[in-house]
Amino acid sequence: MTEDKQKRSEKFLHRELPLFVFFLLLSFVFWYLNELSKELQGTINYPVRYINPPKDRIVTGDLPEKLEMDLRGPGYSILKVKLSGSRAPVVIDFSKVTPRRIPGTMPRYYLVTSGLINSFSKQLHADFDILSIQPDTLFFGYDKLVTRRLPVIPDLHVELAEGKKVIIVTEPDSISVTGPQHVLDTIEGINTKHRSFRRMNDNFSSKVPLEYPDYLQTAQKRVTVEVTVKDQQSSYFGVKQSREN
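Request: output the structure for the sequence above.
Response:
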């Protein structure tokens, strides 16, 4: 190929290739829009929220945060719900469902999710069908919601100089905690977040957050921890404290 022919060929490619790519993309768009107008089937993991347990009761158990829904309908509708950035969760309202009790000493219940399809379709304003929901059964329990006063347990590690002793107390030394009765009946108290202090010779105090699971509520989020450093042997107060010579 002569140099002149090679230049003409390269010029042709530079001019025609973008046009070819444009029409290829345009063909793909028309094909995709045509596919979206057809009835398709797809799966989506959708967030769920649980509300309105019986009065003075709390729902216990490992209920899922998302449910897997098998959908069938126009492709654009399924694509729309899949691409929605911030999804408002579907709601399971315990005041409007009738769970079945599992025989046994501890009251346990189950709910078949196929019975929630109509409710979810209305909440989603769906123009598609929800064929099934996974898991197909939700297991949970109800527990009495109670309030107890529990001790605050300081979780501090204080490194001391040789011959020093430490006394650790919290203010307040106990707090009101609200949660499931079976949980509050089995825990010793509410821990502070772990803190370490190195080579302390003087008394000091510090605001420390409390650590507890989300299903518990406390009257306050932080307590004041007061640390007294002494020379002579003294009693230790608090459950979790450390000494290092």
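Confidence is low (pLDDT under 50) at residues 234-245.
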